[in-house]
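Dear Dr. V.,

Thank you for agreeing to look over these. As mentioned in my earlier message, I'm a first-year student in the group and I'm still getting used to reading structure tokens, so any feedback on how I've presented them would be very welcome. I ran two proteins. I've put each sequence directly above its structure. The first is here:
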Amino acid sequence: MTTGLAAGCVQSSGPAAERSTAATADATPPTATPAADGGDAVESRLVDLANAADPAAFADAHGIAYDDGRVTVVVTLREGRTLPTGYGAAATLAAGDTVEASVPVDEVRALAADENVTYVRTPREPNA
């Protein structure tokens, strides 16, 4: 089932103030814990992908959707917030406070640190 994107704009302050916002969504909250190496709300596999000498090989070995420097992620947003722009994120699905997006791998941690975002993770596989 595919859900459409809802447009909106929320004014940010702080380091993300120059970035605008574009889409909202909702789904299940993440179950993984944030990476321990800096406190960003990002799944550790995504940190490992960004640090990998060969991200394509790492993604392939770990079942992560990666293509041409971009990774598919699920972004959980703070209530009433929208997906920030300025990180190269291209939303593909949205529901409530959750957005699935394609993001340049080198922007994942910055996106996770944005005040509109609570967590960034890889998509879950559907149960068979």
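The second protein is here, in the same arrangement:
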Amino acid sequence: MTSKSQSLIFLALLKYFLLINDAHNIDLYAYNFEKLISSWRNLWNENLPFYFVQLSSIDRPSWPYFRDMQRKVSLKIPNTFMAISSDYGDSLNVHPTHKQPVGERLALLALKNSYHKNIIANGPEVKSVLQNGKDIAITFSMQKN
């Protein structure tokens, strides 16, 4: 449970890992995730940046869908930023095995978005996917300084 403290001032909120009580209910997870962000912002500041780590790459059939849902939430809710961790994950471990690079990714996001540093904080993102027979063309968008 989180409660408001009059003596604390937050520059941003950072959440490492969002627990999944029902690993098969993506819609419920998305709803609860969005409610978490809005409730914390209601306590402190409606525009407070919210940073989080995407779920790791553990070998669970539904997790790619959860990771995509997290990506969509980060795009849908303003001032919300996601650090990718799947490339540092382990198929047998729910947590990324290499935590320092994941922390560095969060730091880059914060430096760019909360401290307004002129840096590249994310890698390329898929912009479109086109299939033509057996060929697939993927277009990426790249963040600019």
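From my reading of the second output: The helical segments are 26-44, 63-76, 99-113. The chain has one domain: 13-141. Does that match how you would interpret it?

Kind regards,
E.
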